[in-house]
Design a protein that fits this description.
The N terminus is likely disordered. This protein has two domains: about 70 residues; about 325 residues, phage-related protein like fold (Alpha-Beta Complex), CATH 3.90.1690. The chain starts with a helix and ends with a strand. It has eleven helices and 13 strands. About 30% of the residues are buried. It has a seven-stranded mixed β-sheet with strand order 5-13-10-6-9-8-7, sandwiched between helices. A four-stranded mixed β-sheet has the order 1-11-12-4. It is about 40% helix and about 15% strand.
């Protein structure tokens, strides 16, 4: 072999190796094969082929300038794609959250379908845990459908995961039940909420409040020391048991959840209003004192004249005198209101006179005002009537926002198949833990019938 052919041969071999590597990187089987063939070809080639391969090598060198930046471009595109995917994911989550909020918006007097589903599924899960699912449905297919419903509601994959201890009522659904109670009741809506932790909570109670005054130029500021004491809030359980029929159809499970939520909310509201207004400090109310009893203790009551023991004996002046028993600050704005049983709606229009035709107004939305103050209807105070009812509270006036309503946790439900076993019925126990105390003793007053 001539020496002048050795160097071109080495160059061709190098060219073939570069071509093979480039083709392998481009993942082209045909070009890889061609490169390998060049690598094993004889090194002694004619001059025209040598020139041709030189041209190819030059073309590869020119193409390599563009190819060498390709990995960086691919990586940049991949990063841009990842960012775009994350943005799309964030948008989807935002839309899903908005859809969830929209779905969670409940109709008046009801909870959302999601909340009703959870309540019903929780009931099914607890019955399944106790091995008494047959009490819900006699058909095996129906029982399987109920279990699947509960499992899908809780996003569980196995039947064994259905455990009441693992499926508490989510806080957002607890808030829905609270909101539903507020629709049916008064004190939860009007009083100031305060969470009760472990033991006793002690929110502030307003005492003497020194007034601010003028201060001369460069004069010292006089010390103002308001008197502060502390209210006392601790958990007191209230609740009840609701009977359910033995058979529950799969198609009625969500309406059953609505029934449970609505029934529980109505009865919770009734119990809360009874305690909030009428708790008298006796054992019946576990020493809790409500608005009327505190008004008695604080001397902030107006009693009808002697022998005026009937609610119908109350006059407009008696209702107006009630406003003089509260702190003037409670009269500002719309903090204060009259609280009356709904039966008084038939009596208050009679207080209108020619001189005062607007003393009582029934507004188109169903609300009412007396002397310009809102009238809030509640069914726990003494109803209107002409029969004697000595020393009974017929009205409350004041600002309930200066009362604390304490609550520990949120309302809970627990089922049982044992309570009414003889009646072939299931039971749902509703429990909540609440308490009441005042932040300002002069914020509310009560109108009472005469003691005798």
């Amino acid at each position: 072999m001539q020496p002048q052919h050795i160097l071109p041969g080495l160059a061709l071999a190098l060219c073939a190796g570069v071509a093979a590597l480039a083709c392998a990187w481009l993942d082209s089987g045909l070009l890889v094969a061609s490169g390998l063939m060049l690598a094993i070809a004889p090194v002694a080639l004619p001059e025209d082929q040598v020139e041709e391969f030189k041209t190819i090598l030059g073309d590869l060198r020119g193409a390599w300038a563009g190819l060498k930046d390709l990995p960086a471009a691919v990586q940049s595109n991949r990063e841009d794609t990842d960012r775009l995917v994350q943005q799309v994911t964030d948008v989807r989550r935002l839309l899903a959250a908005r859809s969830a909020d929209s779905a969670a918006r409940r109709a008046p007097g009801l909870v959302s379908d999601d909340c009703a589903r959870h309540l019903a599924a929780q009931f099914v899960a607890q019955c399944d845990k106790s091995g008494k699912l047959e009490a819900l449905a006699s058909s095996g297919a129906q029982r399987d459908a109920l279990v699947n419903f509960a499992r899908e509601t809780f996003n569980l994959s196995t039947r064994a995961a259905l455990s009441s201890s693992e499926i508490p009522l989510p806080s957002q659904f607890g808030s829905e039940i609270r909101g539903l109670i507020s629709e049916f009741g008064v004190v939860r809506k009007r009083m100031f909420p305060y969470p009760i932790g472990l033991g006793t909570s002690r929110p502030a109670r307003i005492g003497t409040r020194p007034a601010f005054g003028s201060i001369a130029m460069s004069a010292g500021f006089g010390e103002k020391s308001p008197t502060l004491t502390f209210a006392s809030l601790e958990s007191h359980k209230i609740g009840g048991i609701v009977r359910l029929p033995r058979e529950i159809d799969e198609q009625s499970i969500v309406p059953m959840g609505q029934f449970l939520a609505r029934y529980g909310a109505v009865e919770f509201a009734r119990a809360e209003d009874t305690w909030g207004f009428l708790a008298d400090g006796t054992g019946t109310y576990e020493a809790v004192k409500g608005i009327v009893q505190i008004a008695r203790d604080q001397g902030r009551t107006v009693s009808l004249a002697t022998t005026k023991t009937k609610p119908s004996d109350a006059t407009l002046d008696d209702f107006r005198a009630l406003r003089r028993q509260v702190n003037k600050a409670a009269l500002s704005g719309r903090l204060s209101a009259y609280y009356l049983d709904t039966t008084w709606e038939t009596r208050l229009p009679a207080y209108r006179t020619t001189a005062e035709p607007n003393v009582y107004q029934r507004l188109p939305d169903g609300s009412a005002t007396l002397d310009g103050f809102p009238v809030i209807w509640t069914d726990v105070l003494e109803p209107y009537g002409t029969a004697a009812a000595a020393d009974k509270p017929i009205a409350v006036f004041g600002a309930l926002s200066f009362w604390w309503m304490g609550e520990h946790g949120h309302p809970r439900i627990d089922p049982s198949e044992h309570v009414w076993f003889a009646n072939d019925q299931l039971a749902i126990r509703f429990i909540e833990e609440i308490d009441f105390d005042y932040a300002a003793g002069d914020a509310t007053a009560a109108l009472l019938t005469a003691a005798s």
